[in-house]
Design a protein that fits this description.
Layout lengths: L50 E7 L2 E11 L10 E4 L2 E4 L8 E7 L10 E5 L23 E2 L7 H7 L3 E5 L19 H15 L11 E6 L1 H11 L7 H6 L19 E5 L5 H16 L12 H21 L14 H18 L11 E5 L5 E5 L3 E4 L4 E5 L1 H11 L37 H5 L10 H4 L3 H5 L2 H11 L4 H4 L9 E7 L7 H13 L5 E7 L10 H12 L1
Parallel strand pairs: 1-7, 6-8, 6-9, 9-10, 10-15, 15-16
Antiparallel strand pairs: 1-2, 2-5, 3-4, 5-8, 11-12, 13-14
């Protein structure tokens, strides 16, 4: 299906009455077929429903028009009380998870060709109700924006004349009004695709071009961005889109619109979750076993055991991907450390040569500002540099891993899928899977076999089934499908989706929230996809787990590919 040629239906006698199909079952827009989306008439954009926001951009006034839309015809009603920070909280808008705000500045108002910045806000893969992109943490409308800041993506987008969309989506942690759990995967990807389809349906009346949608997010939002960018137009999502009344789905469940995107700008994407625990321990197990780099000190025997077990499982998975480095060498557990160090070296030398950084040499120190405002001083014992020549002399890989874990303690093992287990009761990402009646399920064998919560209807303790037996059941197969549909890797490495042609992905040089192995495998999957035109990936100099720290570089890249 990648860059598919348009294939007409072989059943010629139905040519006048049936939609013409692409190879993937999607209708060819504007040719022969007269079918339209079953919900399209209910999803027409009304430009009269708007409000004006007065913005100061670079010291000058700018008017921005905000349109708020519900982008599906059958939105899911949430419970009026949901768990949030600080406990149960009253929900202001029970439909806010399937709404989108479209911001159009005076610069973009009459431009049907400009890019649309499609912003998702799903840190930790959490659900994200629509908020106010122009409000600060106190709720006050933020009217002062700067176009040349390295951290102000809104200012940069407005200055460039782009349309901005802020998108609410379902995801983990939600409870519906009927008591079910509507946020399980692939709901978050389905919602993003539905919002993209809304923009395509109304392309002629909403400023900006739906052919130039740029999806962007950080952490879980970065993972969502990559999943959407990889799986464009995949028919696998059509039944879910039909269920919520998305644009461009006809009465037969076929597609009359596309949901691929032009580009993604993704920061520290948390992705490939069903293999991320293995990759995390493969990356950090040796460091973890030193006993000084986790909040559990000393480590329990059980933690050591699961860390070693998971680490041992990753090499076979990585090899199965069949990824190649630039010179054709296979990307394996043996070549991964060298690939990581090559990218670290490249960004260190860029920081010295292009950004004027004086990188501490061996024995010198870095100072990092922590989230609480305190300063952390860390000695360089892993990196030998020549600041005169702007060159890296050598990198000690093992000590580099220790350095990362010095600046931020490692996650508990397993890092992502451990709720209800004998080691950990934090939810993490466990509740991305499950059926409508269960809060969560397990996709990791270790977690399934070590679930200790009685009566939750999952795990070996409640079901009596081994993980292998469970995965062969209908529920097990559903879990596998859920994890696939939020993961870009299966789509990048097959012809199941139309990949975005342009990718800008960043991961911080001291980011320990997921493994470098996951990020490099993603990069090489993007780069190995023959339909991708530009895979711009870097390990950003001394950045922690965060995003939008290089806005000028990112938006300069975007301006270039838009040309």
């Amino acid at each position: 299906m990648k860059r598919k040629s348009q294939i007409l239906s072989a059943v010629l006698i139905m040519l006048l009455s049936a939609p013409v199909l692409f190879a993937n079952g999607q209708m060819e827009e504007g040719t022969f077929g007269t079918s339209v989306g079953a919900f399209d008439s209910a999803l027409m954009f009304d430009p009269s429903k708007s409000e004006t926001i007065d913005v100061t951009l670079d010291g000058k006034p700018l008017k921005v028009t905000k349109y708020t839309v519900t982008y599906v015809a059958s939105p899911v009603q949430m419970a009026d009380m949901l768990m949030g920070r600080g406990g149960l909280q009253k929900v202001k808008d029970v439909y806010a998870w399937q709404k989108m705000a479209i911001y159009v500045s005076e610069k973009a108002a009459n431009n049907q060709d400009t890019a649309i910045i499609f912003s998702v806000n799903n840190g930790g893969w959490m659900n994200s109700p629509l908020g106010n992109m122009f409000a600060d943490f106190s709720g006050k409308v933020n009217t002062v924006l700067v176009s040349n800041s390295d951290t102000d993506k809104i200012g940069a987008a407005l200055a460039a004349g782009y349309v901005i969309c802020d998108v609410g989506t379902r995801s983990r942690g939600l409870v519906a009004a009927d008591g079910t759990f509507p946020g399980h995967a692939p709901a978050v990807v389905v919602d993003a695709k539905a919002a993209i389809r809304y923009l395509r349906l109304n392309d002629d009346v909403i400023p900006g071009s739906s052919e130039r949608i740029v999806i962007t997010g950080t952490s879980g939002g970065g993972g969502l961005s990559t999943a959407v960018a990889a799986s464009g137009n995949s028919p696998e999502y059509y039944p879910y889109l039909k269920e919520i009344g998305a644009a461009g789905i006809d009465a037969f469940g076929n597609s009359t619109l596309r949901d691929d995107v032009f580009a993604t700008i993704a920061y520290c994407p948390i992705t490939d979750l069903n293999h991320a625990d293995m990759a995390y321990e493969w990356q950090y197990s040796a460091t973890r076993l030193l006993g000084n780099y986790t909040d559990q000190n000393p480590l329990s025997d059980a933690t050591k055991k699961v860390s070693v077990e998971l680490a041992a499982q990753y090499p076979a998975y990585l090899k199965s991907l069949g990824l190649k480095l630039e010179d054709g060498t296979p990307l394996t557990a043996a070549t991964m450390p060298g690939a990581i160090m090559a990218l670290v070296k490249a960004d260190l030398e860029k920081a010295m040569a292009e950004e004027g950084e004086t990188v501490p040499d061996l024995g010198e120190t870095w100072s990092f500002i922590q989230r609480d405002g305190s300063t952390q001083v860390v000695t360089n014992d892993w990196l030998d540099v020549d600041n005169v020549a702007n060159k890296v002399v050598s990198i000690d890989y093992g000590k580099y891993m220790e350095f990362i874990c010095t600046t931020a303690l490692l996650k508990t093992s397993p890092a992502f899928e451990n709720f209800g287990t004998s080691l950990q009761y934090m939810m993490n990402e466990s509740n991305l899977t499950g059926n409508k009646a269960t809060e969560y399920n397990h996709w990791l064998k270790w977690s399934w076999e070590n679930d200790v919560i009685p009566g939750n209807k999952v795990g070996k303790d409640d079901t009596g089934m081994t993980f292998e037996v469970f995965m062969d059941t209908a529920d097990g197969k559903a879990v596998a499908k859920q994890m696939k549909m939020i993961n870009p890797m299966p789509y990048l490495l097959s012809d199941e989706g139309d990949s975005a042609p342009y990718w800008y992905v960043r991961h911080g040089m001291r980011d320990r929230d997921t493994s470098f192995a996951v990020e490099l495998a993603l990069f090489y999957a993007i780069q190995n996809d023959p339909t991708v035109k530009d895979a711009n990936f870097a390990i950003a100099y001394m950045q922690p787990h965060s995003g939008n720290y290089d806005v000028q570089e990112a938006y300069a890249w975007l301006a270039g590919v838009l040309k």
